[in-house]
C-alpha cells in the first residue's frame, strides 16, 4: 500500500532527476573516492575530489541532494519572512536575530537555485501549521520560535547526511559545509532564546509536539567510529551526546517534512504556472 | 604516575605561569596524559619538557601531522587539544569576575565537548596520532577578563568551524568526512553562543550565509601563537588545497 510518505517521496524524486535511485546508489561514492585517490597521488594540489566540469550536468545524486536542500530553504525563507511580516509576533529586541537568519536562508536558496539551474524544483505548497499540529505558529511567539529551531536543527542534520553524497564535487561539498555550520549557528541562537542549550542533549525535543520527535531521534548516540565516548572519557551521556550532531537520511527528512510540504506532481508542473503560490516563486522559475 | 611525570607537571606549571589551575583533577588528567604521550615519542622529547635548566632555551620538538586523511585528523586533533586546554584553564580559573551562571554553564559545556573531541581523535588515531601538547601558550589571554576570554573563545570556535569546513574537500574517506561533519556543527553552535554572549541578540552570531572556510595551512597560521615556542608543527604532508 502506498503511504502518503511514499507519494511525497516519489513525487520529489520524479522531479529531481532521471535517476530516482541516486540517493542510495553507493556506486557514485565509490567511484569518486577511487578517482580522487588516483588524482591525489599525481596532482600537486592534493587531493581534489573533483569538480563537475563546466557544461557538464551535475551527477544525479548531487541534483537530488541539492533539490531536497532547496526544499528546506523554501520552507525556512517563507517561514521567517512570514513571521517577520506578522505584526506583534516577534519581539522588537529579537527582530535582528530573525532578519539575520532570513538573509542567510535567502542566500542559501539563491545559491542552490543558481547551481541547480533548470534542475531546480519549484517551491512546493507549504503549511506551517503542520496540518494543524501548530495552529498558533504565527500568533504565538513561543510556537514560532520552537518551530524555527526545529527547522534549524533538522537542517543541520540533513546537510550532514548529504555531505558524503556530494563529496565528488569540491565546490558543492564546501558550499554545503558552509551552509551546514551556518544552520548550526542559527539553531544555537534560536535554541538559547527558547531557553534551551545551544546544543542538543540526548534526543530531547523540548517544547514541541511529539510528531516532531523524528527531528531529534538518533541524537542520543554516544558511539563515534566504533568508540564509546562515555566509556572513554567518563563523562555523562548527556554531555557526550551534545558534543556530536548526527546525520539524517533523505528519507528521514522527507518523513519529517511531510506535514509541512506538498510537492507539485509530475514533471509537467515543474516549470509551469501554479495559482497557489506567492510572487516570490515567479522569480525563482527558470 | 611516576616521579618523573610529577616533575614534568610542575615544570609545565612554571612555564605557563599565567594560568591559575585550581581544578586539580582536570589538570592531572590533561598534564599526565599529555606527558605520557610525549614519553612514548622519544627520550629527547621528555628531556625537553623536564630539564629545569632548559626552561629558557628549550629543546625544540617537531610534531609531524602526517599526510592524507590521517594528516587531516591530526590537524583536527591539534585544534581540539588547543580548544580543550583553553577551556580547561578558563574553568580552572573559576571563570572571570562577573561571570553569569549561563556563561559558566556554556564555558563548562565547551570544555567538556572539546575534551570529548580531543579524546575521540586520540583514540581514533591511535599509533598514528601526534602527541598531546601538555601546555599551549596562552600568554596573550587574560583569563581574568571577560572580554579577553570571550574574544579568544570566539576566535578559537570560528577557527574550528573554518578548519573543518575548509578541510572537507581534502578528505578522501566518506566515513571521516561524516565524523568531521558531526563535529563542525557543534563548533558552529559554540561559536554562535559565544558571539551572542559578546553582542547579544544581534545578527553577530551568524554573520554570513556562507560560513567560514579556510585551508589547513591558513588555519595553522592562526593557531601558531598558541603553540609552545619549543614545539614546531610540521604540516608539509597536509593536502595543499584551494578552498573553493
Q: Tell me about the biggest sheet of chain A?
A: 2 strands, antiparallel
Q: Give the structural class of chain A.
A: mainly alpha
Radius of gyration of chain B: 18 Å
Structural class of chain B: mainly alpha
The counted number of beta strands of chain A is 4
Helix content of chain B: 55-70%
Helix tally of chain B? 8
Question: What would you say about this model in short?
Answer:
The complex is a heterodimer of chains A (286) and B (244). Chain A is an all-alpha fold and 286 residues long.
Description:
The complex is a heterodimer of chains A (286) and B (244). Chain A has 286 residues and is mostly helical. Helix content of chain A is 53%, strand content 3%. Chain A has helices at residues 4-16, 26-42, 60-84, 95-116, 141-166, 170-193, 229-233, 237-242, 250-257, 279-284, and strands spanning 125-126, 223-224, 227-228, 261-262. In chain A, the strands form two sheets. A two-stranded antiparallel ribbon of chain A has the order 1-4. In chain A, strands 2-3 form a two-stranded antiparallel sheet. In chain A, a hairpin with a 2-residue loop joins β2 and β3 (227-228). In chain A, α3 packs antiparallel against α5. Chain A is globular and about 50 Å long. The two termini of chain A are 36 Å apart. In chain A, 48% of the residues are buried. Chain B has 244 residues and is mainly alpha-helical. Helices cover 59% and strands 3% of the residues of chain B. In chain B, strands 1-2 form a two-stranded parallel ribbon. In chain B, α1 packs across α2 (24-41) and α4 (68-92) packs antiparallel against α6. The radius of gyration of chain B is 18 Å and the shape is globular. Residues 1-56 of chain B have low confidence and may be disordered. The interface between A and B is large, with 70 and 60 residues.
Task: List the SSEs and their pairings.
The complex is a heterodimer of chains A (286) and B (244).
Chain A: H1 4-16, H2 26-42, H3 60-84, H4 95-116, E1 125-126, H5 141-166, H6 170-193, E2 223-224, E3 227-228, H7 229-233, H8 237-242, H9 250-257, E4 261-262, H10 279-284
Antiparallel strand pairs in A: 1-4, 2-3
Chain B: H1 3-15, H2 24-41, H3 43-50, E1 61-64, H4 68-92, H5 101-125, H6 146-167, H7 174-198, H8 216-223, E2 231-234
Parallel strand pairs in B: 1-2
Amino acid at each position: 500500500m502506498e503511504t502518503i510518505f511514499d507519494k511525497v517521496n516519489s513525487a520529489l524524486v520524479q522531479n529531481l532527476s532521471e535517476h530516482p535511485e541516486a540517493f542510495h546508489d553507493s556506486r557514485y561514492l565509490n567511484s569518486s573516492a577511487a578517482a580522487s585517490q588516483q588524482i591525489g597521488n599525481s596532482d600537486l594540489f592534493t587531493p581534489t575530489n573533483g569538480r563537475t566540469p563546466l557544461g557538464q550536468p551535475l551527477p544525479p545524486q548531487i541534483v537530488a541532494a541539492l533539490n531536497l536542500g532547496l526544499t528546506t530553504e523554501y520552507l525556512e525563507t517563507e517561514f521567517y519572512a512570514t513571521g517577520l511580516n506578522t505584526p506583534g509576533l516577534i519581539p522588537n529586541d529579537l527582530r535582528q536575530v530573525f532578519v539575520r537568519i532570513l538573509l542567510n536562508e535567502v542566500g542559501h536558496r539563491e545559491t542552490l537555485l543558481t547551481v541547480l539551474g533548470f534542475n531546480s524544483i519549484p517551491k512546493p505548497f507549504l503549511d506551517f501549521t503542520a496540518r494543524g499540529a501548530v495552529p498558533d505558529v504565527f500568533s504565538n511567539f513561543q510556537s514560532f520560535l520552537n518551530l524555527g529551531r526545529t527547522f534549524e536543527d533538522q537542517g543541520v542534520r540533513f546537510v550532514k547526511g548529504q555531505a558524503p553524497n556530494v563529496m565528488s564535487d569540491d565546490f558543492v561539498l564546501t558550499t554545503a559545509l558552509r551552509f551546514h555550520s551556518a544552520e548550526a549557528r542559527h539553531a544555537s541562537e534560536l535554541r538559547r532564546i527558547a531557553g534551551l542549550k545551544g546544543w542538543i542533549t540526548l534526543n530531547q525535543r523540548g517544547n514541541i509536539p511529539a510528531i516532531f520527535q523524528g527531528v531529534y531521534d538518533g541524537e542520543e548516540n554516544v558511539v563515534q567510529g566504533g568508540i564509546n565516548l562515555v566509556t572513554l572519557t567518563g563523562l555523562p551521556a548527556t554531555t557526550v551526546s551534545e558534543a556530536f550532531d548526527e546525520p539524517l537520511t533523505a528519507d528521514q527528512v522527507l518523513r519529517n517534512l511531510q506535514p509541512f510540504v506538498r510537492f507539485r506532481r509530475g514533471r509537467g508542473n515543474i516549470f509551469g504556472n501554479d495559482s497557489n503560490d506567492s510572487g516570490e516563486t515567479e522569480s525563482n522559475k527558470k | 604516575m611516576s616521579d618523573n611525570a610529577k616533575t614534568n607537571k610542575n615544570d609545565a606549571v612554571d612555564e605557563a605561569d599565567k594560568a591559575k589551575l585550581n581544578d586539580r583533577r582536570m589538570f592531572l588528567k590533561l598534564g599526565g596524559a599529555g606527558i605520557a604521550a610525549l614519553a612514548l615519542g622519544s627520550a629527547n622529547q621528555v628531556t625537553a619538557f623536564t630539564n629545569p635548566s632548559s626552561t629558557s632555551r628549550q629543546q625544540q620538538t617537531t610534531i609531524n601531522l602526517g599526510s592524507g586523511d590521517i594528516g587531516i585528523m591530526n590537524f583536527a586533533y591539534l585544534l581540539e587539544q588547543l580548544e580543550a586546554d583553553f577551556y580547561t584553564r578558563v574553568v580552572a580559573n573559576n571563570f572571570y569576575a562577573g561571570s553569569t551562571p549561563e556563561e559558566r554553564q556554556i564555558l563548562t559545556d565547551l570544555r567538556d565537548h572539546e575534551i570529548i573531541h580531543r579524546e575521540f581523535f586520540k583514540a581514533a588515531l591511535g599509533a598514528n596520532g601526534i602527541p598531546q601538547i601538555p601546555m599551549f601558550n596562552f600568554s596573550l589571554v587574560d583569563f581574568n577578563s571577560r572580554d579577553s576570554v570571550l574574544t579568544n573563545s570566539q576566535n578559537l570556535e570560528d577557527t574550528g568551524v573554518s578548519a573543518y569546513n575548509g578541510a572537507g574537500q581534502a578528505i578522501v574517506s566518506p566515513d571521516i568526512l561524516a565524523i568531521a561533519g558531526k563535529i563542525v556543527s557543534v563548533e558552529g553552535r559554540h561559536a554562535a553562543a559565544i558571539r551572542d554572549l559578546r553582542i547579544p541578540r544581534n545578527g553577530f552570531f551568524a554573520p554570513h550565509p556562507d560560513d567560514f572556510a579556510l585551508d589547513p595551512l591558513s588555519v595553522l597560521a592562526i593557531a601558531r601563537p598558541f603553540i609552545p615556542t619549543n614545539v614546531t608543527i610540521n604540516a608539509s604532508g597536509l593536502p595543499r588545497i584551494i578552498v573553493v
